């Protein structure tokens, strides 16, 4: 594995937590990596693969993490103008019984399709071809009306894989290789396993004995869970979700993918889904990534986008419980080596932007407008609850809201006759330099 770039005490604490998880979980092998600011800062492994410790080149099957690669292909096609997320599937894949659902609904698991195809447990059986899969898609494949609720569907991602294959004129996995893996240098990820890969095992529930699990080609269901990968490649994928897209996607598109589009029912959502990535809330942080499982394997890629950190895990056991381990590893890194904040002045702020900063009033309510790092503005109420947002230049002389009530709304600067900023119009909300200017106060 890659040499550590964390301190020895941090590395020992991370390895101790990993060793506990491997031992208590009775995992034949368990490998992990921690990512910070786009770089892998620690890797570790416990257990054996064919009698030796896992290495950087050891492949594990990553199951549903495969879906995130398919989702990136869909979003690249959207950005290139080849489809719209509101397009019905029928427009690009004609002749299916579910052609009315939209591409965006399939991406976010809100199309209402059932989770699994008919027949044998597909993950432990040889896959069917696309024609056979499409023939299964009758009205009974709907669990809910489209758009009603989140309902995870492997069928939906099988359809998306077929879609991107049709658009690209090649197999979906060939498109993944050409458009994602090669540009990001992820040479350890492949459709079928390579020599030296970890073998998948089921661990007996009441004895320390193993049963080999099958590793079939999933055929038409492959876009839902086929790929094999290594810990270094998964670490690169975690860095991708943390913001280092390597030019494969724009930052805006990645942010769009990581916005909640559907959540599991409950009094407080903890697990949800964006346009491809799974989302989770833990200890006040929002994570983006995906978990994966296939017979004999479990894997995890989670990124904390706000903190630019990530954790990846891979094990070769069917019943390997990894829940919470990524949070523990992330917490160990934060405790032993907290991120160091930095600040530096910006010597190139145009005077016309400085003239916009300061106090503005919406009616009688004071707000501050502050020029922040990265050329964005921060609008915030002062001392009271209210609506604030970050804004960025829209390229046409205005500003676009990035969050909250004003997300997507445009801020326009209105000027007095002498050219000085007089009002801010944010989606018809008028902000002035004085509360209710020109009106008499009793």
Index terms:
single chain; alpha+beta; 2 domains; 23% strand; CubicO group peptidase (Beta-lactamase class C family)
If classified by CATH, what would the architecture of the largest domain be? 3-Layer(aba) Sandwich
Mean pLDDT across all amino acids: 92
Low-confidence spans: none
Distance between the termini: 74 Å
Structural class comes to: alpha+beta
Would you state the CATH class of the largest domain? Answer: Alpha Beta
Order of helices and strands: HEEEHHHHHEEEHHEEEEEEHHEEEEEEEE
Q: How would the global form be characterised?
A: globular
The number of distinct β-strands equals 20
Helix percent reads 10-25%
How many distinct folded domains?
A: 2
Q: Radius of gyration, Cα only, in angstroms?
A: 25 Å
Give a verbal description of the structure.
It is a single chain. The strands form 4 sheets. An 8-stranded antiparallel sheet has the order 2-1-12-11-10-9-8-7, sandwiched between helices. The chain is globular, with a radius of gyration of 25 Å. By secondary structure, the protein is of the alpha+beta class. The protein folds into 2 domains: 8-336, Beta-lactamase (3-Layer(aba) Sandwich), CATH 3.40.710; 351-432, Lipocalin, CATH 2.40.128. The chain contains 10 helices and 20 strands. α2 crosses α6 (172-184). β16 (389-393) and β17 (399-401) form a beta hairpin. This is CubicO group peptidase (Beta-lactamase class C family). Residues 349-433 form the DUF7586 domain. InterPro entries: AmpC-like, Beta-lactam-related, Beta-lactam/transpept-like, DUF7586. Residues 17-324 form the Beta-lactamase-related domain.
């Amino acid at each position: 594995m890659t040499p550590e770039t964390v301190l020895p005490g941090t590395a020992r604490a991370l390895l101790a937590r990993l060793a506990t998880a491997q031992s208590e979980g009775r995992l034949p092998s368990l490998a992990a990596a921690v990512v910070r600011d786009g770089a892998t800062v620690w890797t570790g492994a416990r257990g054996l693969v064919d009698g030796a410790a896992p290495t950087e080149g050891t492949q594990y099957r990553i199951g549903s993490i495969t879906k995130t690669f398919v989702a990136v292909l869909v979003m690249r096609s959207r950005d290139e103008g080849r489809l719209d997320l509101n397009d019905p599937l029928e427009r690009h894949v004609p002749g299916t019984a579910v052609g009315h659902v939209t591409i965006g609904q399939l991406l976010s698991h809100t199309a209402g399709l059932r989770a699994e195809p008919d027949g044998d447990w597909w993950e432990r059986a040889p896959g069917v071809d696309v024609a056979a899969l499409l023939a299964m898609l009758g009205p009974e494949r709907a669990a809910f009306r489209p758009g009603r609720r989140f309902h995870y569907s492997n069928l939906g991602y099988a359809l998306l894989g077929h879609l991107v294959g049709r658009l690209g004129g090649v197999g979906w996995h060939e498109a993944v290789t050409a458009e994602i893996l090669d540009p990001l240098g992820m040479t350890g990820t492949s459709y079928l396993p390579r020599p030296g890969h970890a073998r998948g095992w089921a661990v007996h529930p009441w004895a320390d004995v193993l049963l080999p699990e099958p590793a079939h080609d999933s055929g038409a269901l492959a876009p839902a869970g086929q790929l094999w990968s290594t810990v270094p490649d998964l670490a690169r994928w975690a860095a991708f979700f943390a913001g280092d897209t390597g030019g494969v996607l724009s930052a805006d598109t990645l942010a769009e993918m990581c916005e909640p589009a559907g959540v599991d029912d409950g009094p407080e959502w903890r697990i949800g889904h964006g346009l491809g990535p799974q989302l989770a809330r833990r200890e006040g942080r929002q994570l983006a990534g995906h978990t994966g499982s296939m017979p004999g394997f479990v894997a995890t890629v989670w990124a904390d986008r706000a903190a630019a950190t990530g954790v990846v895990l891979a094990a070769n056991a069917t019943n390997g419980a990894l829940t919470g381990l990524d949070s523990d590893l992330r917490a160990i890194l934060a405790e032993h080596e907290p991120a160091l904040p930095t600040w530096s002045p910006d010597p190139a702020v145009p005077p016309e932007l400085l003239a916009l900063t300061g106090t503005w009033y919406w009616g009688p309510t004071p707000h501050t407008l502050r020029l922040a790092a990265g050329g964005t503005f921060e609008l915030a109420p002062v001392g009271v609850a209210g609506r604030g947002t970050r804004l960025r230049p829209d390229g046409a002389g205005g500003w676009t809201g990035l969050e909250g009530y004003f997300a997507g709304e445009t801020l326009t600067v209105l000027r007095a006759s002498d050219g000085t900023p007089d009002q801010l119009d944010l989606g018809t909300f008028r902000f002035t330099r004085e509360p209710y200017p020109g009106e008499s106060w009793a």
